Amino acid sequence: EQAVERRLRREGWTVLGRNLRLAGVEVDIVAESAGRVVLWEVKHRRRGDYPALSASQRRRLSAAAETYAVRHSPVAVGLGLAVVDGTGWWPRITLESDGLVDVDAAP
Q1: How confident is the model at residue 93 (pLDDT cuts 50, 70, 90)?
Q2: CA nearest 39: which of 50, 25, 49?
Q3: Which of 32, 48, 77, 101 could cysteine-pair with 65, CB 3.0–4.6 Å?
């Protein structure tokens, strides 16, 4: 999670919180950029697999996003998946949010 937080900050995101409980769900990172808040789930990749959000995880994170939006309205809230692949020399971090994919090979 620390590597993902550093990556987000380097790209201009403001980290609003880590390991927050919203609607009974622990959200790994909440960050804002350009007026948009994203609730980031951080997954660690092992050789040969690519983690994804299950349907139940997506439902729970969506409920957390709705709770955040109500508490901080008006604000646009999205969901994001940060995958940390530590199988190489440096962790490779892939950020996915709203269908956009951004890959970084450096920590």
Answers
A1: confident
A2: 25
A3: 77
